[in-house]
Amino acid sequence: MRQSGYTIWLLTLSLAAATFGAIVYATGMGHIAVPGGDILRVIAARVTSNPALLAGIDPVIPFVVFDVRLPRILTATLVGGGLAMSGVIYQGILLNPLADPYTLGVSSGAAFGAALALVANLSLMGHFSVPLFAFSGAALTLLVVLYLSSFNGQISANTLILSGVIVGAILAAGISFLKYLADEQVAVIIFWLMGSFASRTWLDVGVVTVALLCGLGLSFFYARDLNILSLGNRSADTLGVESTRVRWILLLGASLVTAVCVSVSGIIGFIGLIVPHLMRFLVGPDNRKLLPVSILAGALLLLVADTVTRAVLPVEVPIGVLTALIGGPFFCVIFRRRQRRAI
Amino acid sequence: MTIASGFGLTGVSFAYGETQALAELDITLQPGRFYGIVGPNGCGKTTFLDLLTGSKSPDQGSVFFENQPVADYRRRDLARMVALVPQDFGIDFAFTVQEVVLMGRHPHIGRFASPAAEDWRQVDAAMAAIGISHFKDRFVNELSGGEKQRVVVARALAQQTPYLLFDEATSSLDVQYTMQIFNVAKRLVHEEGRTVIAVIHNLNLAAAYCDELIFMQKGKVAVSGPTDTVLNPAMIKKVFGVESRVTFDDFSNTQQISFRYWS
Q1: Alpha helix locations (H) across chain B?
Q2: Is A286–B99 a contact, with Cβ atoms under 8 angstroms apart?
Q3: What is the C-alpha to C-alpha distance for residues B88 and B169, in angstroms, rounded to an integer?
Q4: How close A2 comes to chain B (CA, Å)?
Q5: Contact B84 A238 (CB under 8 A)
Q6: Would you say residue B236 has pLDDT above 90?
Q7: How many CB pairs under 8 A join A and B?
Q8: pLDDT greater than 50 at residue A95
Q9: Do A111 and A151 touch, CB atoms closer than 8 A?
Q10: Which residues of A touch B100 (CB under 8 A)?
């Protein structure tokens, strides 16, 4: 199963190429079909501000491509990459291949924040109220979980997971209560919780890009330390890793990336769990190889899923539901197969 | 306090919450010796090692290494001087044996550098010394407990440090591999002048290999000194509360202890 160094390079490159190809192809799909060549011309015309390139293209096409489809497609791609990256980091730090970006309750916090904004009908910040509340909810939850699980500046994997579960359970009750209070507004909350990339803007693309770049920088800088952390605290300490500091930095980084992803797209499960898990199966646990491959695969997978729900299915299924419906059973199959192999 | 080199602990106390693990510990560990730390379960042996590696900091007192407080060292610098074979070595990820041993070179390799020829040479030598080269491509999470333990010992050897700390490094090994590892350690001490500090439960093993013994009891050093002078029935009775006899055994060519198992 495990591939050699050369094959891993090839895999990384082909995933990158496939993601780029999928972005172009997906942009052409939808109510109005746009050929691939026209898409590249529209993009080139915008980037070089040369309207001559648009000759012979229906004037509505640049608008559809550039202002409607690309922001949504790029947001989905970036969020997919971000969730997969956080998944790799969480699994590495919590020493648990079954952890995911939501293990520490970041998603519940975001959901609570968003639900609060929706119920109170807060519109003081217009379009941004819900994402901002979601992000604040996620960040606050993270602080509470870290406070609960740290002792003398040390944090252990088990207490983190436990604190995440407890805080998540409290927030779930809070969300139920908000839904109860919401009356006819409840549909809006439920819809937000299921995740969606509909009507994303370039601002969303920008915010997720910045978060992802920060996360990328941190995770690549500490990728080898993250490998060593999987040997346990005492070993990592004596191998020259500032394990407490590295753990804090990576946890905060991954959680903030997750919080940003959740605040622009709602809660999309399974990408952050399955992608790192599957990719580890192919390239092994070395985070220097695992991170790039997982980020690309997560990006590709979420883009494909969003395109399926946007342009292939007759009705738009919420993206979070789709990833869970496809990812869940798929995960059960690999999980079962691995169990059988281990026995 | 200053000592030429080695470790020096003065008035060191450490507590886990309310539970006192070490109380007012004073001891000096000289380089070039094979130290054995013995004592009943829960007497603070592992905590003692953690203080030497800087993994824990004392509540009171100070731990010096080569004339500097351990706390003043950068982790990476200390990791080039002191290696630890820990008691717990569970790994849930499918790294290969060779990858884990290569992790021992971590403090010697720059952040974005690849392992140099010298790193690979040390990895191969460490695996050969412990006799695990033939399964270097197997995944560590699929090994038996004893095999894992030998991988972790090889990792510490690859680290090429003047000081080696063993925390019950042979607890899940059979007699053959136990002797193999201690023979390697003994050779490092006597031929290369390195220092080994080992927590050992088996008193006969400690008697056979250690130049110096440190008896610990309830977070304090009960006695320490050359093995020949401190290993006696009275001390074993005091620390472990069991009856024993210490005699020179000419087959093993060392002091050995026999116990009165039941009466």
Answers
A1: 45-53, 75-79, 97-103, 117-130, 145-158, 175-192, 203-209, 227-230, 233-240
A2: yes
A3: 9
A4: 10
A5: yes
A6: yes
A7: 77
A8: yes
A9: no
A10: 231
- Distance separating alpha carbons of residues A122 and A116, to the nearest angstrom: 8
Tell me phi and psi for residue B237, to 5 degrees. -65, -40
The DSSP annotation for A276-324 comes to: HHHHHHHH-S-HHHHHHHHHHHHHHHHHHHHHIIIIISSS---HHHHHH
Tens digits of residue pLDDT in A213-254: 999 999 999 999 999 998 888 899 999 999 889 988 998 899
Q: B201: Cβ–Cβ under 8 A, 6 or more apart, which residues?
A: B38, B168, B171
**Cα–Cα dist B136/B146, whole Å:** 15
Q: What is the reported pTM?
A: 0.89
Question: Is residue B58 less than 8 Å (CB to CB) from chain A?
Answer: no
**DSSP annotation of B74:** -
Is the alpha carbon torsion for A114, A115, A118, A119 positive or negative?
negative
> In this complex, do A237 and B53 lie within 8 Å of one another by their Cβ atoms?
yes
Which residue of B18, B56, B73, B75 is the best one to mutate when testing the A interface, meaning the one whose CB has the most A CBs within 10 A? B75
* β-strands B244-249, B254-259 pairing: antiparallel
**ipTM for the complex?**
0.88
Q: Which of A95, A221, A237 sits opposite B75 (nearest CB)?
A: A237
Task: Say whether pLDDT at A199 is over 90.
Answer: no
CA distance B140 to B245: 41
Q: How many residues does chain A have?
A: 343
- Are the C-beta atoms of residues B76 and B107 closer than 8 Å to each other? yes
CB A330 within 8 A of CB A317: no
Q: Between residues 214 and 243 of chain A, which touch chain B (CB distance below 8 Å)? A: 221, 224, 227-228, 230-235, 237-242
Residue B78 Cα, gap to closest chain A Cα (Å): 7
B239: its two tokens? 């620390």
DSSP β-bridge partners for residue B20: B15
Q: What is the dihedral of CA A81, A84, A88, A93, to 10 degrees?
A: 100
State whether residue A150 sits within 8 Å of chain B by CB.
no
Tens-digit pLDDT profile for residues B74-86: 999 999 999 999 9
Asked if A231's CB is within 8 angstroms of B89's CB, the reply is yes
> Residue A93: what residue type?
I
Encode burial over B33-56: b for 16+ CB neighbours within 10 A, e otherwise: bbbbbbbeeebbbbbbbbbbbbbb
CB atoms closer than 10 angstroms to residue B94? 18
Query: Mutation test of the interface with chain B: which of A1, A90, A93, A231, choosing the one with the most B Cβ atoms within 10 A?
Result: A231
Angle between helices A271-283 and A287-307 (to 10 degrees): 130
Say yes or no: A285 contacts chain B, CB-CB below 8 A.
yes
* Residues from chain A contacting residue B165 (CB–CB below 8 Å): 238
Would an 8 Å CB–CB cutoff place A244 in contact with chain B? Answer: no
Distance between CA atoms of residues A77 and B49, nearest Å? 48
> Residue A343's pLDDT band (boundaries 50, 70, 90)?
very low
> Which chain B positions have a beta carbon within 8 Å of A95's beta carbon?
92
